[in-house]
Design brief:
Structural class of chain A: alpha+beta
Strand order of the largest sheet of chain B: 1-2
Order of helices and strands of chain A: EEHEEEEEHHHHHHHH
Oligomer: heterodimer
Largest sheet of chain B: 2 strands, antiparallel
Distance between the termini of chain B: 84 Å
Largest sheet of chain A: 5 strands, mixed
Helix content of chain A: 25-40%
Strand order of the largest sheet of chain A: 2-1-5-3-4
Number of domains of chain B: 2
Distance between the termini of chain A: 63 Å
Number of domains of chain A: 2
CATH class of the largest domain in chain B: Mainly Alpha
CATH superfamily of the largest domain in chain B: Fumarate reductase/succinate dehydrogenase, transmembrane subunit
């Protein structure tokens, strides 16, 4: 294994340049170094002007998502040694506007996330004195996979539909809606149906499936969307066939 | 604020310190060539055209049969034309590709519970394949022995 590796980092400095450029840095390539360690080395020792987001360094916070050699990755769990003798190309996440260098604008995702109401909705809250809302292990398993989402947005970066049609509500927001729809304690699925079943909701998805492939937490957003298509189609059929009281 | 921006604000009309000018990168027209999975996806979408042709061909076939023997013979002769033959071979390959990809994707959309537990994905795709094999066997039996 080489002891140094070249990192080709995309720069965008809006006050100085109208487009992006690539800057090369040589960093130590230790066996236990991830791409984020390389970026931190650049920031600390070589070029303090480099901007990027990071926080937990352990694949939990979801802030360090970037495009590494063309693939959307969490840079805190992508080892430099995976790229042999290099170079390692680091770009901002695709499909998002770039604010500076590797920092992307995530407001669009944040607005969409709120639209699907990813929180527990109850028709009537139980008084605290009645205790917790109990759940069996099987009921937990129904949604547990979808609850692992860390909002890192790698799925949006891998989704060509989101790139082409920015109105698409997107993989993570739908997976998180399903996380609550499938929770036995939640009663809000009817409220989420309107947003999810419109054109920019689940029907925008043409099932490319790459959101699931790149997900670092194995959430399977593509599966969540396809399952919801079935649910929404049945709900649509019921509203067409059955009287209001029987739906 | 950088020195350049401070000294030459007119050169940066859309940019202020708190409202930076975002860089918007549009997807390339050839985005579908960027990843192997995208190529496979586009091929699967493209296969729909051939599925449509397959259905048209089937309807033409039924119409020919319903109009009597002469019409049927004419249809067979037309089907032997190299252009139609090549088109139908290509269509067959796309239909098979379409079927395989959708059977593999079926477990994503269908979660079947048996005894309170979801069935593994492999069982759901396998049951789709089994139904396909059974239907094919039935057609073969109809053609050869039925």
């Amino acid at each position: 294994m080489p002891d140094r590796i070249t990192m080709q980092v995309t720069r965008y400095r809006p006050e100085e340049e109208s487009g992006e450029s690539v800057q090369e840095y040589e960093v130590p390539c230790s066996k236990d170094w991830v791409v984020l360690d390389g970026l931190n080395y650049i920031k600390d020792r070589l070029d303090g002007s480099l901007s990027y987001r990071w926080s937990c360094r352990m694949g939990v916070c979801g802030s360090c998502g970037m495009t590494v050699n063309g693939e959307p990755k969490l840079t805190c769990e992508t080892f430099l040694s995976e790229y042999g003798s290099g170079p390692v190309r680091v770009e901002p996440l695709k499909n998002f506007p770039v604010i500076r260098d590797l920092v992307v604008e995530i407001g669009d995702f944040m607005r969409k996330l709120v639209m699907v109401k990813p929180w527990m909705i109850r028709d009537q809250e139980k008084p605290v004195s009645e205790g917790e809302y109990l759940q069996t292990p099987n009921e937990l398993d129904e949604y547990k996979q979808f609850s692992m989402c860390i909002n890192c947005m790698l799925c949006y970066s891998a989704c060509p539909i989101y790139g082409l049609e920015p109105g698409f509500i997107g993989p993570a927001a739908i997976a998180l809606a399903q996380r609550y729809n499938l929770d036995s304690r939640d009663e809000g699925s009817a409220e989420r149906l309107d947003v999810l079943s419109e054109h920019d909701g689940i029907w925008g998805c043409t099932f490319v499936g790459e959101c699931t492939e790149v997900c670092p937490k194995h959430v399977d957003p593509a599966g969540a969307i396809q399952r919801y298509k079935l649910t929404a189609a049945l709900a649509g059929l019921k509203s067409f066939v059955l009287p209001r009281s029987a739906r | 604020m950088s020195e350049h921006l401070r000294d030459h604000p007119a050169e940066h009309p859309g940019y202020t310190e708190y409202h930076p000018r975002w860089l918007r990168r549009r997807p390339s027209t050839y985005w579908w060539l960027e990843r192997r999975a995208y190529v496979s996806f586009i091929t699967r979408e493209l296969s729909s055209i051939f599925i449509a042709w397959f259905i048209v061909y089937l309807l033409l076939f039924i119409r020919a049969v319903s109009r009597g023997d002469a019409s049927y013979q004419q249809f067979l002769a037309w089907s032997r034309h190299p252009v139609v033959l090549v088109l139908n071979v290509v269509t067959f390959l796309f239909v098979v590709f379409h079927a395989f990809t959708w059977f593999n994707l079926a477990p994503k959309a269908m979660v079947v519970h048996v005894g309170g537990k979801p069935l593994p994905a492999s069982v759901i795709s396998a049951s789709n394949y089994a139904a396909w094999v059974a239907a094919t066997a039935f057609v073969v039996w109809l053609l050869l022995g039925g």
